[in-house]
Amino acid sequence: MLYVIKANLILALLCLLFQVLMHRDTFFGVRRMMLWGIYLTAILLPLCNLLPLLTADATTDMAEAYASYVLPTLNVTAMRVASFGVEQSEPGCGMWFVGMMAIWGLIYLIPVVWMTAKLIMQVTYIIYLRCTCRPYSPNQGGGRGGSVFLYPRPCSPFSFGPWIFLHPDGMDEQTLREVLIHEQAHVRGCHTLDILFSQLVCILFWWNPAAWVMRREVRLNLEFIADAAVIGRQADKREYQYRLLGFSTQTNVATIANNFNVLPLKRRITMMNLKRTPRMGMAKYVLFVPVAATMLLLSNIDSLARTIAANAKKPLLIVDGQHVSEDLIDHVTVLREASAVSVYGDVANDGAVAIDSKNNVEATDSSKVPTVVQTIADADDNIYADVEQMPEYPGGMEAMNEVLYQNVRYPAVAHEHGIQGMVIVNFVVEKDGTLSGVKATEVRDVNTGAVMPEVKVSAFSRDDRQKARRQGKLTDEFKEDAKAKQHYAEGIKALKAESERVVRLLPERWHPGRNAGQPVRVSVTLPMTFRLQ
User: Fold this and answer.
1) Is residue 137 scored above 90 in pLDDT?
2) What 3-state class would DSSP assign to 72?
3) Are 158 and 257 a contacting pair, CB within 8 Å?
4) Are 251 and 207 in contact (CB under 8 A)?
């Protein structure tokens, strides 16, 4: 989906640039190459990955600003649809969602199927004409290019691939000569490829107006090339234009072909009467290079921002004025403005840093910090919280989230009793890229960010209920309270279990973290938000 969005945006922007700068140029051959370049840029540029060529020093203010909003928590709602399984927050809500997705799918597929069928029918009909029409050998044209066939009824001359179809009745010698020169120019230039490719782009991106504008520009530019070929053979320009007007009332056999009377004729005649654009005007075509380079950077800004976030230098950890070694910190969660407010409320407008320490945290004198750090660096089996090159899932965060989304399920017991929360999952990426120590450490409230306490289910066992009954405390209110606490505890436990289960399903090995070029074990934290809608 992200690729489709990028490709369509690039196509629209480059099409706009073409319309502004090259709309009235007479460099028809260069224009043709530029139109092909726009198509190929839109299709291939989103696939280019600049990340291997970038380093942590290759940063820009734009990328750093963008990095503040990447790597969000994994959000799971009760309305998710995965593997055709529906989990609903309300009766009928999930089926409504599935229905809407099916409707949108049909809205896209119906035009695609209809236009594809129409294209196949036209190509099939032209092949049928090739097999049934009689060959025609006119002594006109003054050049080679294509096989000519006699169409049985009056029609506008047209060509498709190496074949030219025409109905010569009513044409004088000069008209026939100009028609043949025109269509042979299409054949020699393989113009059918341009038309078919532009049509395929329209079929796939039919909702994008730029695709249709590009198709029109492609077809018109091909006619400009063929018209220039006729004028270049010393044909009378005015007489040729009159003949074009004479063909405007004739029927086109197939719109997918190169038709002699492609509309609008007014623009074709205008282009024939324009003065040739000075060669210096070709310099503006160079503008496509920086524009394409900028789009390439923007297309890779997401990956670049993740690299910046992963390789950013971290400050010293100081508690009560003293340095604290990293081995005393269990994990640190840094939330930017929007994420922090969503977790902790308005009090975290400027962001939040959540530090969870180990049980034996003690402040370390600053003079001892180098010794502690050196000890950590020398221990191969230490688990690092920050390294020079952080671990990365193959394909990046988007690929990992896609795997998680395909497998995660909102636990039924949590869904049934309205339990939601942000589960903090910790795991270690080992030196070989495998995961170990997957554990959901806590669950935080999705609104306040406060840690949701766990309640022992055993506290509401049968013995406790019997004891409360003997003491006369087993009232309806006590039962409801005990049941609610039991459901709460079961929901929290289910959220944790589901989070651990889906993380363990990650099938690919990670690219391990590295210090000084050597793989090391790195602790990773993944927040997973389960929210009811």
Assistant:
1) no
2) coil
3) yes
4) no
Q: With pLDDT > 90 as the criterion, what percentage of the chain qualifies?
A: 12
Asked whether 265 and 250 are in contact (CB, 8 A), the reply is no
64-88 pLDDT per residue, tens: 444 332 333 666 665 443 333 334 4
Query: Helices (DSSP H) in 25-134: which residue ranges?
Result: 28-44, 61-67, 93-132
φ and ψ at residue 144, rounded to 5 degrees? -90, 155
**The dihedral sign for the CA sequence 210, 213, 215, 218:** negative
Radius of gyration of the chain (CA): 34
Q: Residues of the chain with pLDDT > 70: what percent?
A: 67
Partners of 515 in beta bridges: 518
State residue 430 phi and psi, 5-degree precision: -75, 175
Q: Minimum mean pLDDT among 92-101, 343-352, 364-373, 492-501: which range? A: 364-373
How far apart, in whole angstroms, are the C-alpha atoms of residue 33 and residue 218? 10
**What is the DSSP track for 433-467?**
S-EEEEEEEEEE-TTT-PBPPP--GGGGSHHHHHH
Sequence-distant (6+) residues with CB within 8 A of 56 are 307, 308, 311, 312
Contact of 531 with 447, CB cutoff 8 Å: no
Long-range contacts of 86-90 (CB under 8 A, 24+ apart): 87/409, 87/410, 87/412, 87/415, 89/415, 89/532, 89/533
Q: What is the pLDDT of residue 65?
A: 45
Integer Cα distance of 248 and 270 in angstroms:
16
Phi-psi region of 154 (alpha: psi -120 to 50; beta: other; left: phi over 0): beta
| Number of residues that this document lists for the chain | 533
> How would you classify the pairing of strands 134-135 and 147-150?
antiparallel
CA pair distance 246, 423, nearest whole angstrom: 75
pTM for this prediction: 0.53
Please, which pLDDT band fits residue 332 given cuts at 50, 70 and 90? low
Residue 196 · residue 256 · CB < 8 Å: yes
Report residue 325 as tokens: 């070694």
Task: Tell me the pLDDT of the chain averaged across its residues.
Answer: 75
Q: How does pLDDT run across 1-29, given as a tens digit for each residue?
A: 678 888 888 899 988 988 888 877 888 88
Least confident of 289-303, 438-452, 491-505: 289-303
Separation CA 298–CA 71 (nearest Å): 17
